[in-house]
Amino acid sequence: MATDRLSRIFGALADPTRRAILARLSEGEATVNELAKPFSISLPAVSRHLKVLEAAGLISRSRSAQWRTSRLEAAPLREVTFYMEKYRRFWDESLNRLEQHLELLQDEDKP
Amino acid sequence: MATDRLSRIFGALADPTRRAILARLSEGEATVNELAKPFSISLPAVSRHLKVLEAAGLISRSRSAQWRTSRLEAAPLREVTFYMEKYRRFWDESLNRLEQHLELLQDEDKP
DNA sequence: CCGTTATTTAACTAATACGTTAAATATGCA
DNA sequence: TGCATATTTAACGTATTAGTTAAATAACGG
């Protein structure tokens, strides 16, 4: 994975464990132990996934006593959606319908 | 990167060279040589990036004489956008405005 | 058939990713 | 202080990634 921000974000999203962690965090903040519970991997492994997510800006973390709670951060998700926008014309259903319509119009010009 | 489809897609998007290739393909089909031209990496390297993109379903390829042309494929882009949808409430501006509005309403109940 | 052009495969290297277990660190509390 | 709990860091193994150069393959055109 490269070092630019978009690459870090996509790279972070490329792992199913990390996506599951994000899904969990979409329901509310959680500690490392809570996040680790559903997985069969060790705590240090989860700790590192969190570090990757944090480096991508997808989560922020705060300490309260011996617990470190993670919370989902909006900005990178917004960034990805904006990135996808420039490809929307390739898949947007209504636009495809428009294109088909235009093709039909062209066909009408032909014999 | 894991082996499920979404991971393959995000993994493919995690490389800036591959994103640049997709951007180029959004302007139309292109051969391997054409795609390689803007980059300072070797042809085999580009060939492999194309294989990664193809495995993710982000491009399809056809052969015509000795040229292999690549074209952008819509489905995975749609899939990513749909995936992002479930996080939209975390960053959608208008929703934030709604939330602020609700907070204001709550504040009005207070002294 | 031969030479040229386009592309891929093979073989290799270096860096990164992801997991492990063991040890270190941080904090709360008796 | 000292133990318990939560989390991170260290040290390590292995797989994957991304690049290289050299050789192989594919298809055209004389």
Automatic annotation (TrEMBL), chains A, B:
Domain of life, per lineage: Bacteria
Chain ranges of the HTH arsR-type domain: 1-92
Gene3D superfamilies, A to Z: Winged helix-like DNA-binding domain superfamily/Winged helix DNA-binding domain (1.10.10.10)
Any GO MF annotation of the entry: DNA-binding transcription factor activity
InterPro entries given in the database record: ArsR-like_HTH, HTH_ArsR_DNA-bd_dom, WH-like_DNA-bd_sf, WH_DNA-bd_sf
Annotated Pfam families: HTH_20
NCBIfam families named among the record's database cross-references: HTH_metalloreg (NF033788)
Listed name of the protein: Transcriptional regulator
Organism: Arthrobacter livingstonensis
